[in-house]
UniProtKB/TrEMBL annotation:
Residues 40-157 form the Acyl-CoA dehydrogenase/oxidase N-terminal domain. This is Acyl-CoA dehydrogenase C-terminal domain-containing protein. Its cofactor is FAD. It holds the Pfam family Acyl-CoA_dh_M. Residues 282-451 form the Acyl-CoA dehydrogenase/oxidase C-terminal domain.
Length: 600
């Protein structure tokens, strides 16, 4: 069974010493209440809830799973009761406006909460997590009447939300979507169609579930230009939120999955269900991106969570498992062998998970500041700027951190050896739960194409150039006056290489369009390793400065520097391999004819 201890000290390091959330909060209206004392209190209470309520349910959820019976879903033992405590604590509306029942704190505060909840019990955390996406979409695109009715109930937590995109025949290609929305005289619509892979689509937590659904109106253009977005409640209600009758929404089945057993992944059938348009007709996909980007940042947290939980549970085993003698001499003479943490390869695996967890935390928390700016922007121009900057980072965060989280989970199983493959220690659950993260909300390949295609090439390199400028500015500044100049030098060198390989790749793509697709995965992974290097360089500078000042927590800062050295020496060099692949011949991928794929 896995255990979880909230990494409050490291969270405080990131938000206080590295990113200075307090100064950031003074620049946004919602930050007035987010005083250091308030942030500390909320973080500690969220940590307590995660450790004491959710973590003990993690294995139970995996073993029992969800049960489907005639369209109704029962969640694992203790899940429903934990959600009741969640609602009573007012956690759901933490970062949403007071006028709709929220507490009005910055979005970044909600992200800290999401990390703690997700690491303790990812399956449970998906239920309120999906609601957050519905809440954000309603807040940005809903009418005032829709916000008063639906957003208020979602902030309370008495209702929950989902997003319904995928259909069996089209997967991520939403242009092929067939669900229909027929307009009615009263302004509502009749929604008909079937959606699959709907996380938290049916459960016993709340009195109503609000589905955010993509569908086509009659005569809508073909492809993605003809998609609209709709609010479709499980139960119909009056204008004041009183539940009346059952809507035409039923859970046809739940999936039997590799992992996240405690979360119901549903087939949802809409049979002339009453729905209400959210946003403008035929602009549903743009509106849904509000939800999808929320979900993608949430998925990035799953990658961080997998690295953190894997490290926390593999470390005690490595300290207490005695096997073979250390190559550099006996370390535990009173034992038949030395603790395996003295073996270099075991340390490599542990430090890899630690570096990805701590580096990922810094990456995600910095991105959360863009979310704050986007929501709190006073002008549309400021909102667009923050949204675009966050949009550039989103595919890197989602894809890179889920890939590294899966690697961390795999390494943690390896630390346990054969014991990692059996259920007793819970390590294989971390891997199984993490495996989906690289797939949903767009696979790694889809994120890679989004990054290089939409966020770099079609954007005219503006966002890409701005990000590079930030790396160069930090690198050259600290190359002159920093305490860890070697890291700044590496950051500059890898950024220059990134620029050069990107230019070459785009030039090749002008002659062969497949060049972008063939290089996109490696471009994304290089981007991820480089981005994380920037944050590790920042963390090293802060840690070195703190050590120079003296004072408490010397061991914490020394460990931070040692982990930074591991990252720059052992993990960042992987980017060179991705650079080589990025600019290798496209023919190495595309030349094989289809008939030769079957010749073995």
């Amino acid at each position: 069974m896995t255990v979880y201890k909230a990494p409050v000290r490291d969270i405080n390091f990131v938000i206080n010493e590295l990113l200075d959330f307090n100064a950031h909060y003074q620049t946004i209206p919602a930050g007035a209440e987010a005083t250091p004392d308030m942030v500390e209190a909320i973080t500690n209470e969220a940590a307590k809830f995660a450790e004491e309520v959710l973590s003990p349910l993690n294995q139970i959820g995996d073993e029992q799973g969800c049960q489907w019976n005639d369209g109704e879903v029962t969640t694992p033992e203790g899940f429903k009761e934990a959600y009741k405590l969640w609602v009573e604590g007012g956690w759901q509306g933490l970062s949403h406006p007071v006028e709709y029942g929220g507490q009005g704190l910055p979005m970044s505060m909600g992200l800290i909460k999401s990390e703690l909840v997700g690491t303790a019990n990812w399956s449970w955390g998906m239920y309120p997590g999906l609601s957050l996406g519905a809440m954000n979409t309603l807040y940005v695109h809903g009418t005032e009447e829709q916000k008063q009715l639906y957003l208020s109930k979602l902030c309370e937590g008495t209702w929950t939300g989902t997003m319904c995109l995928t259909e069996a025949h089209c997967g991520s290609d939403l242009g092929q979507m067939r669900s229909k929305a027929e307009p009615q005289e009263d302004g509502s619509y009749r929604i008909t169609g079937t959606k699959i892979f709907i996380s938290a689509g049916e459960h016993d937590f709340a009195e109503n579930i609000i589905h955010i659904v993509l569908a086509r109106t009659p005569g809508a253009p073909e492809g993605t230009k003809g998609i609209s977005l709709f609010i479709v409640p499980k139960f119909n209600t009056t204008e004041d939120g009183t539940i009346t009758d059952r809507n035409g929404v039923r859970c046809g089945s739940i999936e039997h999955k590799m992992g996240i057993h405690g979360n119901a992944t549903c087939v949802i059938n809409f049979d002339s269900a009453t729905g209400y348009m959210l946003g403008q007709e035929n602009e549903g996909l743009n509106a849904m991106f509000t939800f999808m980007n929320t979900a993608r940042i949430g998925t990035a947290i799953q990658g961080l969570a997998a690295s953190e939980l894997a490290y926390q549970n593999a470390l005690p085993y490595a300290l207490d498992r005695y096997s073979m003698r250390s190559l550099s001499g006996v370390k535990n003479p009173d034992k038949a062998g030395d603790a395996i943490i003295h073996h270099p390869d075991v340390r490599r695996m542990l430090l890899t998970a630690r570096a990805f967890a701590e580096g990922g935390r810094a990456m995600i928390y910095d991105a959360a500041k863009y979310s704050d700016r986007m929501v709190q922007a006073e002008t549309q121009a400021d909102r667009d700027e923050a949204e675009n900057e966050l949009g550039f980072l989103t595919p890197i965060l989602k894809a890179f951190l889920t890939e590294t989280g899966l690697e961390s989970a795999s390494n943690a199983m390896q630390v346990f050896g054969g014991h990692g493959f059996i259920k007793e220690h819970g390590m294989e659950q971390i891997y199984r739960d993490a495996r989906i993260a690289t797939m949903y909300e767009g696979t790694t390949g889809i994120q890679a194409m989004d990054l290089i295609g939409r966020k770099v090439v079609l954007d005219g390199f503006k966002l890409y150039g701005g990000f590079c400028k930030k790396l160069y500015k930090f690198g050259f500044k600290n190359l002159i006056s920093g305490k860890r100049r070697c890291y700044s030098a590496k950051l500059i060198g890898y950024t220059l290489s990134w620029n050069w390989h990107t230019i070459k790749m785009v030039a090749r793509a002008s002659r062969n369009r497949d060049a972008v697709g063939a290089a996109s995965y490696d471009f994304l992974m290089y981007s991820g390793y480089l981005s994380m290097a920037y944050y590790w360089a920042m963390m090293a500078e802060v840690a070195a400065s703190k050590l120079a000042e003296g004072g408490d927590d010397k061991a914490f800062y020394e460990a931070k520097l040692e982990t930074a050295e591991f990252y720059f020496s052992r993990l960042l060099p992987r980017a060179k391999g991705h650079a080589g692949c990025m600019n290798s011949s496209t023919d190495s991928v595309m030349a094989m004819t289809l008939d030769r794929f079957t010749t073995r």
